[in-house]
UniProtKB/TrEMBL annotation:
Name of the protein: Epoxyqueuosine reductase QueH
Matches recorded under Pfam families: QueH
Annotated binding of [4Fe-4S] cluster, by residue: C10, C11, C76, C79
Gene Ontology molecular function terms on file: 4 iron, 4 sulfur cluster binding; epoxyqueuosine reductase activity; metal ion binding
Source lineage: Bacteria, Bacillati, Saganbacteria
GO BP field: tRNA queuosine(34) biosynthetic process
Stated role: Catalyzes the conversion of epoxyqueuosine (oQ) to queuosine (Q), which is a hypermodified base found in the wobble positions of tRNA(Asp), tRNA(Asn), tRNA(His) and tRNA(Tyr).
Enzyme Commission numbers on file: 1.17.99.6
Amino acid sequence: MKKKVLLHTCCAPCTTQVYIDLVSAGLEVAGFFYNPNIYPKEEYQKRKEGMDLYCAKTGLPMIYIENDLDYKPGECNLCYKMRLIRTAQFAKSRGFDGFTTTLLISPYQQHDLIKDLGGEIAKMAGIEFLYIDFRPNYFKGRELAKTYNLYSQKYCGCSASIKTRGGKK
Ligand code: SF4
């Protein structure tokens, strides 16, 4: 039987190649869109619609969790944590074998921090964190995003990152 993995998805463009890599590795994948960091609401909506479009085209099942936290912009450590904790908890409660995140494909994110947090959260939640360095395929993913005509954001997500273009995609 295939191993089931819950994939935290930060946006559609980063999901494209990661999904291919996971399926190629023989995994069954479901997406988990939980990103209370995205500001403002209009931007959140655009990214969500981009994900809807991508899922309609590829058949990737996606679970959407509405924003339910009072989020503080600019604190990447907490921002990664809140998203990974929720993903791990959901994965555990629904019988997945493990979880991972599309944040691991971006050369603009703090890769080692995400890797470490994923490992710690996995231990706490009692479920495997599938660490894969997807970054070598980052530009393949950007090309796929153009092919699918997906919305591509210009900043990471929070209000602080609008000014700095932090984690630009
Ligand atoms: S820059 Fe990105 S990762 Fe850091 S706090 Fe803002 S939205 Fe989160």
